[in-house]
């Protein structure tokens, strides 16, 4: 695996500071039943990192003390955590909105047969990876047969109410480009997704989030291997839009790794760039419970151009129309 951080440290990306904290994004572990080419986490079946029950309790204590409104649960495949369902239940009992970043194929894994019903019962927002509406492209990026399983999973989610008008069960899909290019316009692509998936498979959904591939971990290493890293960084930098700075996700979000250490975003977590707080080399969630981080600096490097290029990119999709 090629390291990309040394190629991005000398950055001219502008300094930015935090606003009010609204979302806690928690990575329950890097174990996943898939190994996607575009994965910035380098997740896969052989990863063993997993959040402990003690750290889950730290997360819940922080959510309560800091009045967090949204818990964004990710991985790996977060559903593989033995504590996933307990965390969801406890957060919902606190009145917190819970998002599950789901790879769809997890719904057909052994032991997950009633996962869809669980998500319905807890009114969890499902954000599902489907990097294209064409089978060939999805299987090239995520593995042979993944598209077919993903379609069945989406049909199951529709049957239990997700994405259906008036159900209140939100289902959003996530698109990633196939290579070192910027994604197309989110609104037009959403129309294309709806037309193709609806007409061919009877699938409905609420939103489509268009994400830019980040030049880190597995995707970044692939770029280096193919001699495309510098070209892709030029693409991102040349498409930089200053207006996107105002809405980047790190202003209102904290990212927590499986050990409970805190970062400005999931990408900084994968690069090992910790939250800047009182000069500490690492900051644990326990150190921040109830503290106001508004106005504190955000740690930046050249990968931040990935969030500010073109229409912008965040965990909630494009930043501008």
How would you portray this structure in words?
- The chain is α/β, with parallel strands linked by helices.
- It is built from 10 helices and 8 strands.
- The protein has an 8-stranded mixed sheet with strand order 6-5-4-3-2-1-7-8.
- Helix 3 links the parallel strand 3 (97-102) and strand 4.
- The chain is globular and about 50 Å long.
- The model has no long low-confidence stretch (mean pLDDT 93).
Q: How do the helices and strands line up, and which of them pair or pack?
A:
Layout lengths: L22 E5 L25 H13 L4 E5 L9 H10 L3 E6 L12 H7 L3 E5 L5 H8 L3 H14 L11 E5 L10 H16 L5 E4 L6 H9 L3 H10 L14 E4 L5 E2 L2 H6 L33 H4 L13
Parallel strand pairs: 1-2, 1-7, 2-3, 3-4, 4-5, 5-6
Antiparallel strand pairs: 7-8
Key features of this structure:
321 residues, alpha/beta, TIM Barrel, eight-stranded mixed beta sheet, 30% helix
